Automatic annotation (TrEMBL):
Catalyzes the phosphorylation of ribose at O-5 in a reaction requiring ATP and magnesium. The resulting D-ribose-5-phosphate can then be used either for sythesis of nucleotides, histidine, and tryptophan, or as a component of the pentose phosphate pathway. Pathway: Carbohydrate metabolism; D-ribose degradation; D-ribose 5-phosphate from beta-D-ribopyranose: step 2/2. It holds the Pfam family PfkB. Keywords: ATP-binding, Carbohydrate metabolism, Cytoplasm, Kinase, Magnesium, Metal-binding, Nucleotide-binding, Potassium, Transferase. Signal peptide: none annotated. This is Ribokinase. Its EC number is 2.7.1.15.
Amino acid sequence: RITIVGSINMDLVARTPTLPAPGETVLGSGFRTSPGGKGANQAVAAARAGAEVVFVGAVGSDTFALDLRETLVGAEVDASLLREVEGASGVAVITVDDAAENSIVVVGGANETLTELTAEELAAVAEADVLLCQLETPVATVVAAARHARANGTLVFLNPSPVQPLSDDLLGLVDVAVVNRDEENALGVDALARIPHVVTTLGADGARHRGADGVVTAHPSPAVEAVDTTGAGDVFAGTLAAAWRDGPAAAIRRACAAGAVSTTRDGAGASAPTVAEVDRALAG
Ligand code: ADP
């Protein structure tokens, strides 16, 4: 069982031939909304990977809230602790041009209200096998969740994204860090050396694992025709947490395959594969 304390956003994606300059108005060629937020994406991926998932987070009182809740429920994520707060849900306003260049504004909205955990939310952390967090919600809450997890024998996974310097406090509470190359570089070897397991995703090259014993292992990713790599890191993290009880090597193998399959279709959490799809990818 996995408890995720994290973000949930609506992505508002406008396509336009060229990105507007400050003060300019351009005509767009298309628009779609799609549910996102690293926390929600990873929750959906972990549920598709077969885990029982409880989501702790917040949506607003706007029209996006219902869709966001439905995304979790539709993926069989337990959303009974999802808070509904006054104000705006988290959104990402994304503009993508014909050269696939983008500009993005993320407004935390309801996610920013997650400054303290209730007794019920803390109980969900204590009862889980794994706690999985990212850094799109207030970091003090991540620290509090991790501390409560540690005190109750729950394994702490952290995907430190968007990356920011981690306090000694937090570094000392993480069992497994899931980072991409940029995050690995930004955090630096000294900080990461304090975490027992570091799993680094390497895009098409798969992933690398450094275990508590210091041994480094490379794990290839199945070769695929990638069409949209958005959310591949989230699919990887959710799958890894779901499969970790089978041991790091088996879990990373599945996470690589799930990440690879997710790049063959559009969307973030929505592109996460099922257990059967991952089995098929691994069978080649
Ligand atoms: P992020 O999106 O966080 O930068 P990565 O790009 O490293 O993360 O992708 C996460 C995982 O998704 C990789 O470890 C890999 O398993 C899979 N993946 C991503 N891009 C590709 C690709 N082009 N081909 C195959 N697998 C991919």
